Amino acid sequence: MCQAVRCRICGKTTWSGCGSHVDEVRASVPADQWCEGHHQAQQPKK
Fold it and tell me: Taking the CB of the first residue and of the last residue of the chain, which one, N or C, has fewer CB atoms within 10 A?
């Protein structure tokens, strides 16, 4: 079962779980509060 969780990068809502219930989780979250998941880890400058 999937559940809503907070993104550690942007603080918006994303999901955790098996992946089969993502649509149900998304349906309960306003679109502007959903993390799009396109974050890239920042590399330390050398």
Answer: C
